[in-house]
Amino acid sequence: MGDRYNIHSQLEHLQSKYIGTGHADTNKWEWMTNQHRDSYASYLGHHDTLNYFALAENEARARVRFNIMERMLQPCGPPAKRAED
Q: What does the pLDDT average to over 6-35?
C-alpha cells in the first residue's frame, strides 16, 4: 500500500512541475496542444531539422523558424466549446 501512495505522490509532483504531462482533468485539445508545442520546440532547438525543413519547403531558415513560432500560438485551433454544468 505504501508503494502505491509513493507512486501517486511522484506522479502528482511531475504533473505540477511539467505542464505537458497532463492530469486527470486534461482534455483532448489540451493534450494535443501540448504535444504539438513540444514538437515545434524540438524542431526549433535542433538546427539540422530546421535546415531540413527549410530545404524541403524551399524557404529561408529564418522564414521557417518564424512560421513554426507562429504555429505554436494555437497549433490545434481554438479550444472546443464546453457545455456548462
A: 77
